[in-house]
Design goal:
The complex is a heterodimer. In chain A, helix 6 (114-139) packs antiparallel against helix 7 (143-166). Chain A has helices at residues 2-10, 24-29, 34-51, 59-84, 92-109, 114-139, 143-166, 180-188, 201-218, 220-230, 232-237, 242-268, 279-289, 301-320, 328-353; strands at 170-172, 190-193, 196-199, 270-272. Chain A is mainly α. In chain A, the strands form 2 sheets. Chain A has a two-stranded antiparallel ribbon. The longest helix of chain A has 27 residues, at 242-268. Chain A is 72% helix and 4% strand. The termini of chain A are close together. In chain B, helix 3 (76-88) runs parallel beside helix 4, helix 6 (141-154) packs parallel to helix 7 (170-184) and helix 10 runs antiparallel to helix 12. A 6-stranded parallel β-sheet of chain B has the order 2-1-3-4-5-11, with helices on both faces. Chain B has a 6-stranded mixed β-sheet with strand order 7-6-8-9-10-12, with helices on both faces. Chain B is built from 12 helices and 12 strands. The termini of chain B are far apart. Chain B is an alpha/beta fold. The chains are: A mainly alpha, B alpha/beta.
Amino acid sequence: MSVSDSKAGESGLRRDERLRQTGLIRGTLLRPEVGAIMGAAALWAYFAIVAGDRGFLSWRGTISYLEVSAQLGILSVAVALLMIGGEFDLSIGSTIGASGMIIAIASVNYELNLWLALVVSLIVAIAIGLANGVLVRWSGLPSFIITLATLFIIRGLTIALTRIETGRTQLGGVEDTAGFDLARSVFGSDLQLFGTRFPVSILWWLGLTALATWVLLRTPFGNWIFGSGGNEQAARNIGVPVTRVKITLFVGTAVAAWLVAVVQVISTTGADVLRGTGQEFFAIIAVVIGGTLLTGGYGSAIGAAIGALIFGMVRQGIVYAGVDADWFQVFLGGMVLIAVLINRYVRKRAMEAR
Amino acid sequence: MHRVPRLLLVFMLVIGSMLAVATASAQDEEEDLRFVMVTHGQAADPFWSVVQRGAERAAEDLGVTVEYQAPTTFDMVAMSQLIDAAVASNPDGLVVSIPDADALSPSIQAAVEAGIPVISINSGAEVADELGLMTHVGQTEYEAGFGGGQRMGAAGATEAICLIHEAGNIGLEERCRGFSEGLAETGGTGEQLVVDLNNPTEAQQRIEAALTSNPDINGIMALGPTGALPAMQAIEAAGVGDRVQLATFDLSPEVLQGIQDGTVLFAIDQQQYMQGYLPIVFLTLYQRNGNVPADDVVLTGPGFVDSSNVDQVIELVEEGTR
């Protein structure tokens, strides 16, 4: 503070330090997502060199990693908002499995119109989000623990109820249900672009990223999210409805999980009780790579989307590079470690610079 | 601020060198033929590590390259995405397992349409032909059950029960159907008994009750090691070891021990090493010599492990090839 005061004094201007203009370059470098963007560019360049002749650069190859990124990105953008709001949701992977199975059972076994089945599963997903949020706020316990519990409860219920209902753990035949064609064009269609398929889920990913960024940076609700995650007490003192904000964010992650489930059920024309296993951690990884802090109050939806892009590139890139799948988790963990170290460094510099 | 790019440089170098180490090991012996194998078997699954070893050995023997990929969890969406990437990398051949035909068919079809020869292994025998695959390498449920029934009949069983441990699992019912018909060849009859393995004590008592209530039963076929264990205990508890012969699908340390001790007659082995080895041979022959196997399904099982070969099999299990 004293540094900037003296500088202001030197230049002869008596400006409030909070209004001090940051230089364009420094301002850009201090954005949470900047590390992720450079990392994504570096990874892309790396795979282009190593596996460019193996199809990584082809349109088909690009689509294959964008599709992986899109499904994780839909999740990670919602998770980013929640984490900026200072909470975790570990139950989203289970919610994907549950939503998918509800859609399949309702439409195939009960012969509901697929759209009605989507609504039913959406209602269940919203209920899961509400339950997570209310439990966290009512108990005052860390959301990590509460949603760890709901992770197992939801997955267990999905397996148990599905087996009671159908005697199986996989269900197919969604393509024969009423309303499938329209649902497919909205959630699962492949547009033809440059001679290859272009999954519509990529558009959902980009759209949600834009929406979340707008909410975060341009609306009062966005400010409330930063406030609730940054300093809850202070936020409450200035009138932010913290409980409402956080419960809304939990509903947001559950609905994102539902959307991923819909995309998967439509594109695979079936459901499996194990769908989504481990996605909660992949989503957190994408969010962290994207520059969001685990402590809340700081982060970006664009960063989370780019974190998902990096995940997709590495996941698929190692196939092109001919690396054994055993290594994937090593890279993933390594990248998380590097990303958090860079984020910590950038944040420290950001604080010093003020 | 100039230190930030330097840190990113470090970031790139670290990731780059990590990948370089792995790619180097994979590309050391860059050959003219490159095959990709995508299965649903995770790296730590002992069953699938035998498959992977089979494929790697075949690659070594034939001087080709095999890259093995599997999703980190049983996730058919992730698996279909891995197949997409494998197809886009334009390999000389693709080997896949098909545990969920609904979810994987579009990706596999894309491979076939792109002109890549595809072989399915382990699961997917029923859809392989329809998808236009070169062949399927694995054990089919009915035939394996049939072989088991024949063999149990030859050992003198006349009235046997087949233990279904998952009601509604079509694969298991097919095994039992095959078993009954195989047994019928020697005039024996087979019946199904559904047991719940989530409660092993109850399962054991159920089997025991079946054995004591019907003194004519002289054979039990378990559909996996998890079903074989309560059956072993039930036979012992009922004291009918002289009368009742037990056989099972698949190998486990307890089953092998049982065969050595004489409490288990035989185990049906699907010999998954061949499911890794053979497709690489077929694909290499196809690419180098234009050969295509004539069978829609190449059976790797049922192979049998009994007292005559159990010692050898135990040694090979330790070496990781059985």
